[in-house]
Amino acid sequence: MNEYPVRRGPPPLRWTILTLSLLVALPAPAAETLADAWRLALSADARLRAADADSDAARATREAARGLAMPRASISSSYTVLSKEPAARIDLPSIPGFSLPNQLPLSERNYATHALQASLPVYTGGRISAAVAAADTGVRASGFERTRTEQAVKLDVVEAWLNVLRARRAQAAAERHLAALDAHALDVGNLSKQGLVARNDVLSVAVAQADARQRLTQAKNAVALSAAAYNRLLGRPLDEAVDLVEPPPPEACREDIAALGARARALRPEMALLGARAEATDQEAEMERAGRRPQVGITGAVMHEDNRYRVNQDIAQIAVGVQWEIFDGGVLRQRTDAAIARARAARERQSDTASLIELEVRREWLAVDEAAQRFATTRAATSQADENLRVARDRYRNGVGTHTEVLDAEALRSLTDYNHLNALYDHHLARLRLRKAVGEL
Is residue 335 part of a domain? Predict the structure, then answer.
């Protein structure tokens, strides 16, 4: 039986319509906001993972310090080999006809010993409590360090996020500049064909177009590089497509500088971190002082010795011990003085950091004010620059203006575009940097 291949025609129209409907119904990937970027970066940043590991280490250190007050138990075994069998000399009266030994064996030459020992500190002069307090402070300090790291990561994301938006707006401005020059070049070409303009006009506009194309190439490269830097912070492939939400224009808001400085001193993790370090060093000094006080402990043990000369091979013991180091060459005293000096240094750094934070808050506060004024100025200038270019092109077409006036007007409009977009994103960045300086990012 002969078989013939089945010829398949185009799909029915209803399947095509259904497929297109499904594609249209699928939701498009949402553009990323700054909050989205923060969430992704905080889950991927290696600095935060390192800070979390430091926090785990601090908590483990605290548990180890608490364990110093708990009983300790150990099991030990040993096998002893002696060069001679231990014996005691004895003097017995001689008996005629008998040869009496003059030594009594005490232990075998080879024997094994097994022991179970337990010890409990009773009084350490405050050494254990100081160690626990220092470890608790270390845990709090690790939390402050993580907060500081998180704010640094968020500020890096802010800068990368705004750099992408700034670069894209700069590319759009470069494209607009080139399009304006292309339109002017068309006017110059038409007038040149009519013999109404000099060849110099044609050449100069061609040079301006070449410069605009170069600036556009640089702008496209800046877009790609800023997107790669942004993706790196979010833990994504560097060449992944980036779609960001354009933030609304920032509102002018001039907060009181004194109130901002007071909030910064209360909220900045650096202040709390240095305070915690000073407190931990105080506890280290107390630990060194405790070493100069008596140390009291209880020790108990159960031992077994495989020795045929012992009547009782299993022996239990309990002991109360006191150790008091009355002279150590001044080592503990010097260590105490060193810890006190380190605590004093930490508090001095805290004081210096407070003044630096106030300076940082003032700098960012002034930057916000400057960027806001620049933004308002350039926003008004953009419409003026557009109108100036329109007038210059009309004058040139009507033969009452010069070619140079048009190029100057376009260069001025392009400069105004760049000034405006830089003022816009500088304003966004300055406001977020101010939040970071206050400790509220």
Answer: yes
